[in-house]
Amino acid sequence: MNKIYVVGLGPGHEEYLSAQARAALERAQVLCGYTVYVDLIRGLFPGKEVYTTPMRQETDRCRWALEAASQGKSVALVCSGDAGVYGMAGLVLQLGVDYPDAEIEIVPGITAALSGAAVLGAPLGHDFCVISLSDLLTPWDVIEKRLECAALGDFALCLYNPASKKRADYLCRACDILLRYKSPQTLCGWVRNIGREGQTYKIMPLSQLREETVDMFTTVFVGSSTTALCAGRLVTPRGYEGKK
């Protein structure tokens, strides 16, 4: 079939799969991806060929999928969340230039910024920025500049990859940057294991967020100056209440 679907799975639970994603996974002959993500949906599509690689083998994984598609197979390369938000869509399109026989279709999914925000309320109801705190592919000085600019612009923020074993203090460092421009009372929250078993969340001010223990399964939200608590839910108003 010479087709590769780059599929966003959403948070991971079956109910978050879009109809488009489910259809692509059903049509594909091969399921390909990071082992953890393939395991999330392997049981829903038994009997299919499976190809997985560990973390940090993204380029090899994408090339394998493109080569398989070029040889006539239909392949679903799966990503968590949305395929185009810190996913494999960009890399597949870049590498796909060398595989003209492989047709590429990007299938969107629900990214953690959206599914996590829904758990907390509506913290991204107005303009917001999404920033990853992982410096594996982006230098920390670039991340720091982006945090500063977002804080200066009074954006609400969603922070991906807030900490890991090797980066245990990165969220604290990010909060210290944000506190140069944002009030310590700025409302924030985090959600762990979004849409999966063991989902937990917490709401706190920015001054307390810097002391929180988070990990790579956690997505962090930092409000703007207008973010407020409404019946225990975070809301960043868009301004409807001011219109007449």
Can you tell me about this structure?
With 244 residues, the chain is α/β, with parallel strands linked by helices. It folds into 2 domains: 105 residues, Tetrapyrrole methylase, N-terminal domain (Cobalt-precorrin-4 Transmethylase, domain 1); 124 residues, Methyltransferase, Cobalt-precorrin-4 Transmethylase, Domain 2, CATH 3.30.950.10. It is 29% helix and 25% strand. The strands form 3 sheets. It has a 5-stranded parallel sheet with strand order 3-2-4-1-5, with helices on both faces. A 5-stranded mixed sheet has the order 7-8-11-9-10, sandwiched between helices. It has a 3-stranded mixed sheet with strand order 6-13-12. Strand 9 and strand 10 form a beta hairpin. The longest helix has 13 residues. The protein starts with a strand and ends in a 9-residue tail after the last strand.
What characteristics describe this protein?
single chain; 244 residues; alpha/beta; Cobalt-precorrin-4 Transmethylase, domain 1; Methyltransferase, Cobalt-precorrin-4 Transmethylase, Domain 2; five-stranded mixed sheet; 8 helices; 13 strands; 29% helix
Please summarize the sheet with the most strands: 5 strands, parallel
CATH topology of the largest domain: Methyltransferase, Cobalt-precorrin-4 Transmethylase, Domain 2
The secondary structure category is alpha/beta
Q: What is the architecture of the largest domain at the second tier of CATH?
A: 2-Layer Sandwich
CATH classification class of the largest domain: Alpha Beta
Radius of gyration: 19 Å
Outline type: elongated
| Main sheet strand line-up | 3-2-4-1-5
Strand content: 25-35%
Task: Classify the helix fraction into a percent range.
Answer: 25-40%
Poorly predicted residue ranges:
none
- Tally of structural domains: 2
Give the averaged pLDDT, no decimals.
95
Distance between the termini: 56 Å
- The number of distinct helices, counting runs of at least 4 residues, comes to 8
Number of strands: 13
